[in-house]
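Quiz preparation item.
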C-alpha cells in the first residue's frame, strides 16, 4: 500500500504545481499590469515593485491553493482512471477511497496550515504592502496621480493631462473644489509642478484662471487670471496608512478577536468581524473539500471523459464561491450565525463529494 501511496502522490504533485502556476498567473494578470505600469510609466524602481509583488502573493495563495488541489486531483486521478490503473488497483481489493487517501491527507494537512496562513501571514503581508506603497508615494508624489484621470484629495478633484515622472512637471491641470453649498470652484492652469514637504503636497500652477458661478445668480460667474498660484494639500499619510492597515481584511486572527471583544463590550455590532474570521477558515478547508470532490468525480469517469469531469469541477468551483457569497450575506444579515453561514460552501460540496464517492466505490 505504501508503494501505491507514493505512486499516487508522485502523479499528483506535478499536476498540483501546474495548477498552482496556472491559477496564480491568471489572478496575477491584473496586478502584473498595474505593477508594470509603476515601473514603465511612473518610474518606480524595479526592486521596489518586486517587493510589492511579493507582498501580494500570500493573499493570492489563499485562493490558488484550493484551486490547485482541485485541478491536481482531477488530472492525476483522472489520468490513472483513463489508463485503467485505478481499475487494476481496485481489482486487488483496494477501495477507491484508499487510493486517494494520500492526497486527502496531504490536503487536510495543508488546510490546517492554511488556517494559520490566512489568519496571520496574509493580513500581515497586506499591511506591509500598504505601508510600503505609501512610502513609495511619499517619496514620489506623482505616483498618486494618473494622466487623464480625476484624483480625489481632500475636497478637491484634480485632473492632469500630462505628467513628467522624473521632473514632476505637469501640463493641462484642472482642479475642482467641491462645496456643500453653491457651485464648485474651477481652477485650470497650462503647466504646474508638484512639490512635497513632509505630509503635504504643493502644486505650483502657472498661467491659469479661477472661475466660480454666483450662488444667487448662476448666469453670472467671477473669473480671475493668474501667472503663478500655489495650492497645498494635507495628505495625512500616516493617518491614511494607519486607517487602511486597520481595515478588517488586514487584521490578524488575534487582532480580530481583540476587536470583537472590545466592540462587544461597547455593544457595537461585530458581525463583519466574525464573517471575516470564519471566511478565512472556510477558504483554508476548501483545499480538503476540493480534493474530496475532485477524487469522487474522477472516480466516476471513464476513458475519454476526463475533460467532462474537469469542466464539471470548474462549475462546482464557481458554485463554491457563490455559496461563499451567499453564506457571507446570510451572516451579514444575521439570518444565520457567521460560524454556520460560512460553513455552507464546504458543507454543501462536502455532502455532494461524499455521495459521489460512495457511488464511485460501488461501480
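Solution:
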Amino acid at each position: 500500500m505504501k508503494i501505491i501511496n507514493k505512486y499516487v502522490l508522485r502523479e499528483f504533485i506535478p499536476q498540483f504545481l501546474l495548477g498552482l502556476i496556472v491559477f496564480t498567473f491568471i489572478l496575477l494578470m491584473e496586478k502584473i499590469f498595474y505593477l508594470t505600469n509603476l515601473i514603465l510609466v511612473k518610474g518606480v524602481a524595479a526592486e521596489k515593485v518586486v517587493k510589492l509583488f511579493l507582498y501580494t502573493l500570500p493573499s493570492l495563495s489563499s485562493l490558488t491553493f484550493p484551486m490547485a488541489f482541485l485541478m491536481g486531483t482531477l488530472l492525476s486521478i483522472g489520468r490513472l482512471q483513463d489508463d485503467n490503473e485505478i481499475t487494476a488497483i481496485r481489482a486487488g481489493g483496494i477501495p477507491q477511497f484508499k487510493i486517494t487517501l494520500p492526497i486527502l491527507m496531504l490536503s487536510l494537512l495543508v488546510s490546517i496550515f492554511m488556517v494559520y496562513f490566512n489568519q496571520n501571514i496574509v493580513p500581515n503581508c497586506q499591511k506591509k504592502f500598504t505601508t510600503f506603497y505609501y512610502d513609495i508615494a511619499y517619496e514620489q508624489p506623482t505616483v498618486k496621480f494618473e494622466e487623464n484621470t480625476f484624483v480625489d484629495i481632500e475636497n478637491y478633484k484634480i485632473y492632469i493631462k500630462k505628467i513628467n515622472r522624473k521632473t514632476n512637471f505637469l501640463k493641462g491641470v484642472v482642479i475642482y473644489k467641491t462645496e456643500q453649498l453653491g457651485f464648485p470652484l474651477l481652477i485650470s492652469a497650462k503647466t504646474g509642478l508638484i512639490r512635497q514637504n513632509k505630509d503635504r503636497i504643493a502644486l505650483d500652477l502657472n498661467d491659469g484662471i479661477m472661475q466660480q458661478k454666483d450662488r444667487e445668480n448662476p448666469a453670472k460667474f467671477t473669473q480671475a487670471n493668474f501667472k503663478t498660484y500655489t495650492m497645498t494639500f494635507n495628505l495625512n499619510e500616516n493617518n491614511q496608512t494607519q486607517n487602511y492597515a486597520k481595515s478588517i481584511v488586514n487584521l490578524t486572527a488575534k487582532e480580530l478577536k481583540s476587536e470583537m471583544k472590545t466592540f462587544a463590550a461597547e455593544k457595537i455590532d461585530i458581525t463583519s468581524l466574525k464573517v471575516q474570521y470564519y471566511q478565512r477558515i472556510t477558504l483554508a478547508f476548501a483545499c480538503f473539500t476540493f480534493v474530496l470532490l475532485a477524487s469522487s468525480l474522477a472516480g466516476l469517469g471513464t476513458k475519454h471523459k476526463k475533460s467532462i469531469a474537469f469542466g464539471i469541477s470548474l462549475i462546482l468551483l464557481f458554485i463554491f464561491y457563490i455559496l461563499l457569497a451567499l453564506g457571507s450575506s446570510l451572516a451579514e444579515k444575521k439570518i444565520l450565525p457567521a460560524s454556520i453561514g460560512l460553513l455552507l460552501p464546504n458543507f454543501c460540496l462536502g455532502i455532494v463529494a461524499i455521495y459521489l464517492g460512495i457511488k464511485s466505490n460501488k461501480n
